[in-house]
Amino acid sequence: MKIYFLSWVYLSFGGVIGAAELNIGQPKQSGEPSEYKLNDFTSQERKILRSYGVPVDNSAEFESFLTHLRAGHEKSAETGQVSMVWEYLLTAVQSLPTELRMNKWIKAFIFQGVNITEQLAAGKYSISELKAVYRQAQPPEGLLPKDLIAFLDRRVDELKNIRGMEPNIATTHLKRSFMTDRYMVHVFLEAIKNDSDKLRKKRLRELIKSRMGSTPHESVSDIEQVVQELLIEASEHEIRLMTFDDYSFEGDPLRTGTDFIYTAALRELVRVDGDSLLPEKIRRILVIGPGVSMVVVDDLKNPRQMIEPFALLDILLESQKIDLSNLQIHLLDISQDVSEHVQYLKAAAKQNKPISLALGLKHSQKKSPIFSEHFRELGRSIQGAVITEDLAITSFYQARKKIQIPSEIVLKLRMIEGDMTTTNFSHLESYDLIICFNTLVYLNEQERALAGVGIRKALSQNGCFIANNGLSKKSDPTIELLGNDYLSLIQKKVYKDYPPESVRALPPAMKGSQLWVYKKGS
Ligand SMILES: C[S@@+](CC[C@H](N)C(=O)[O-])C[C@H]1O[C@@H](n2cnc3c(N)ncnc32)[C@H](O)[C@@H]1O
Questions:
Q1: Cα 330 to ligand 1 centre (Å)
Q2: What angle do CA 107, 109, 115 make, to 5 degrees?
Q3: Which of 49, 57, 95, 168 could serve as a FRET partner for 295 with CA atoms 20 to 30 Å apart?
Q4: pLDDT for the residue 433
């Protein structure tokens, strides 16, 4: 099996990388938003920007400032691509036999205080049992017995190493060594080999290939080496997300990850206050930073997915705020991955191929009525959506469901690949609703001023801008991210009951997902 597996790695990296699987990266259409010029701004807007230190007195200086800004964000987005390696591995690990999963051990050893040495001595420890099984019997498909046993031995050593450590530090230590172990390189490459999502497969291979340098014939060990380095690099960025006390999006790298739970509070807001806050009829919507998740729920059978625009549509349809026949939904995102995903969705929709979202409600999320309700409702207001529910409880999920989105809905999306701080997205459109979730946190105050002025320009007269400000540690969620000098804040609402582990580090008054609703001032 190993020879076959390695020769696949070798051959496929030699030949297949770079072959276009979808018609992506076409030239930009005319009329697409362009980078700001200084004379796009009124004197009032310049005054606001000047107060935030943006150089608005000289065109050349202004443009060079923006070029620099965008280059910095693009670099950060590029680094963020390594995050997808991490997400991908996390999913690949979930397909391993339960006994091999890290969480189970961590729960036993760290949180339930099971004594490792005693367990080992008594022969009760599952690793010992597992090793015995693998020594005698055929291993499960895809697993390499010798390497697996060596991997398990390394885990036992790690478990001895954590004695006396703080639970959080021990958890991080165990997870990092588990995820960056050389055995995981095989798990990772095996998952790519079997991946049914061709675009994702191509994307990962390209990433590995880009790290290989220019050698024409890479050896298997070169590939394995590069993958392990990628896993180690990803662990540097991702490790803080693994511990419970520091869950936040902001910072470097810029992640595209997304989850349906972030729109849960929006459903609540629209249900309770939609009539007073939102324009009567919404025709044009802009979603800034919709994101795309590399993996979903619990297997690699689902393609990458984007949830936010469809969740938003579902919420607005439920409230009867939109008329689908006249609706336009624009998506603005700096990430090439997001843009490619939208093109993939539209290409599939044009051929009438089904687009499915796969959602999972985690055990901790079930405790929040807002999350449970959103999970239950999502998709029900989209006419023609096919919903398949799976109520089986797994170690990760309380329940799962798939929503097949009708092609007509997918075809309403239009992608704008751009930076929200430097792109003039007000050019042609006037949006009745702009939403931006888990994205403003990436910007500093000056960048947010640019984004805010742009949002104000792009809103229709009664237009609304809604941003969330939860799950943020560096920026205090109770402090508004956009200044009142360019948009009036009309409502700030705190939704309690965020999963306790995600906000453990915050004082009680700050816990909750916070939505901020702005209306264009006169
Ligand atoms: C963490 S994801 C959030 C995804 C989704 N909104 C959610 O809350 O689930 C942040 C998204 O914002 C995009 N983004 C970050 N900075 C941006 C910028 N300056 N301009 C445009 N998009 C940006 C990223 O590429 C990414 O897709």
A1: 14
A2: 150
A3: 168
A4: 96
